[in-house]
Queue: 3 jobs
Job 1
Amino acid sequence: MTALEDGDMGSFGPELPAMFDGVKLAAVATVLYVIVRCLNLKSTTKPPEIVHQDTPLSRYLFKSCSMLTKEYIPPLLWGKSGHLQTALYGKMGRVNTPTLSGTRKFLPMPDGATATFDLFEALGDHSAGDDVTMVICPGIGNHSEKNYIRTFVDHSQRRGYRCAVLNHLGALPNVELTSPRMFTYGCTWEYAAMVEHIKRAFPQTLLVAVGFSLGGNIVCKFLGESPSNQDRVLCCVTVCQGYSALRVQETFFQWDQCRRLYNFALADRMKKLILSHRSTLLGLAGSNIGEVDLSRLYAATSLMQIDDSIMRKFHGYSSLKEYYEKESCMNYIHKVTVPMFLINSSDDPLIHQSLLEIPRTLAEKMPNVMFALTQHGGHLGFFEGAMLFPQPLTWMDKVVVGYADAVCHWEKNRPACRRSSHRDVNSCPKKRTPGDERRA
């Protein structure tokens, strides 16, 4: 029996190397397949999908802003993966980030808080010849020192825009809180104070409101809260916001696109930010935060748990549902009458596909709204590049400024009624004659 087995083994001996080679080839093929699928290499590039109504303004925008119809080409090897775009933005922000020179402004708030924003003057004249200020609201826990903000500001400055960037309350590591609260999902107080300061300091300036991610919710909510908030605002642009706070948080518990992991990572970052202000939140008079709340914070593994134990209590909301409903722009965005440009990416792992029906429906029903949906870009990534290395400027940087430029020229060529805070996007642009009165 032993001799037979030895003989059988000897007869199979020459075939074993070939079998092992086959296993190796199968393993290599499997790895390549996984890489192709994960990197989404088979996906084709194309221009963004634009949802809009046919108006004189939309036709003008398509003619004046080539980025709306131009193909967005991410870096070939990794740019078609929304996860890598998001991770690269989160880890690095941008490449070759410029150094900015600006002035930090401190604004006392009625409740004792101190809002801060950074002001950066334009580095040249605007092509429309007007004084225009970008009033920018960054993403969750972000501020003017973040790389993606610095890159965007530098690009805007060079195109003739003054830039004011809100620093979310509690986000700057070297600025202490002066009241027992931090920024929240939809608190517009600090953004409103910055806008009002800009209007007073520069009576001739026009405004372009820009919001990134959570900042997009704040900007849209602010504009919709009162018609007067839209005075002197030329347009509003938001990038990668979720529109409905409650629905965003519900989708963050789902595992598809690894959103549950992103939820955990964002919660961990928020937890560290809140705990860095632990003594202030506990020590100042009038605080709604106690030791029990902080104990719940330590155990939190999701943003929803942090919102329930800490964030909603800054403004006295009785429940998490009330907090999300009152802080979301969903109840205000339909009241915005200035031109709005809403940008999202199909492969954004933080924003569920169902949430994209909100801006799509708005663009289909409201003539002042344009919705752009890219196939790639991740969450605030939108890197461009031929093969491996991304370019310093992203598609996002260029399209936001390009849209703002087009609206500035559209407003420049409109008749005198354009000064109304309730602009009609259906009124045709008209060349201004030398006798037309100047903008107040």
Job 2
Amino acid sequence: MTDTLHILGGGMAGSEAAWQAANAGVRVVLHEMRPTVETFAHRTGDFAEMVCSNSFRSDDDEQNAVGLLHWEMRAADGLIMAMADKHSLPAGGALAVDRDAFSAGVTRAIKDHPLIETRYGEITELPKDGHWIVATGPLTSGALAESIRSETGADALAFFDAIAPIVYFESIDMDVAWLQSRYDKGETEEERTAYINCPMTKPEYEAFIDALLAADKTEFHEGETAKYFDGCLPIEVMAERGRETLRHGPMKPIGLTNRHKPEEKAYAVVQLRRDNALGTLYNIVGFQTKMKYGAQTEVLRMIPGLQNASFARLGGIHRNTFINSPTLLDNQMRLKSRPNIRFAGQITGVEGYVESSAMGLLAGRMAAAEILGRDLPPPSYETAMGSLVNHITGGAEAKTFQPMNVNFGLFPPVEARGGRRGRKDRYKLYTDRAKEQFTAWLDAQPK
């Protein structure tokens, strides 16, 4: 027991933690309750199943903090990034994947690793002995969540995360819609045509907003409050903030030219991104929703090009649970009251597939180092990974702690020689510094 690392949860963070610890030479047992115990959001028993978007967001490691985090995870031989690269789809500068092939690839890699054992079944209480990482994610089971609340003496925090609909390509009217990435971004023709675009005139947009606001919505249970993470706001919540909000958000028309009517400028544009390698499925970008199913089909078919849309999956809403990490975890991601237990992934209060995986990577390496009798400090908070773990273990204000994506605001400021720099130059300074620091952190670890 003392020489084995146990990991609760086979999502992005748990899978990455298992991979990193096993590659360091530590025996790992990965515990996953699916498919023995199902959730309403998951469809399979595979590890690292993607239940929301199929995008890892920007892959630009010079100008974007998410892209930098991609770079760091690749440098650390991350499993999640390796499988994302292997099963990537054209996405115009973003990293999107075939979600089924991706999770199947992660599952095969985990099960084929000689030092990783997988066990299925629900664990309902925090373990008292041994080395553990809790990476149960936003859909932590009620029993385990209650055990966490009992141990920490604090109420678990919760917000709501909405799922975007997926459309069958064959049902999209390509005489109305067209293929184009925003600003024709991408190095290949496939990248430059990675998105399907559905244009709207002003009257069509106004009618769509009216229908969206009037549609039947999912009701919350008594005692629940809708505290959404801003990166996953349902479209109807955005519309409630102002009629033009969507047109300046996921429906913005900039950087796009209608191939069918190049002389006409669309008032708004709905984009769809390829969801699988075959190109048979497309998800509606930024269209997370809590509309009821009947209302969804009616409202979404108002979008030009989707008037005959057939849906592989309609949108939904689920509850996400996370702990108040700044008060509960030390800088090794250990629970202060029970230092044999680490937390990783979305349950720590990071948001996004990449951020969750990165926290799993760190937790796995830190736990392995401890088992092997070594000291492994976290990476400098001048790095993307270090800035995140610093944020959740003390950098954030505990009273107002909310889920956070990686962003340059979490990094210490850069000193630009020669005076003030433009944003492009300044971001390059951030990423250059981070890469140097992260490489040094990796080089200092035993091979």
Job 3
Amino acid sequence: MTNTQVADNLMFIAALQQLVRLATAKGMTDKEFEQVKKDLERRLRPTIIASY
């Protein structure tokens, strides 16, 4: 794995953790959560998909 891929994966994981916190605090529905998660995956294109 290249340094760029590692950085991309770390950025994705950090964004996903923030999403989980936001979803909990704001009461997002599962559908909203999945939609935002898919958008993050599309934008950040991680090579490792975290299971949340």
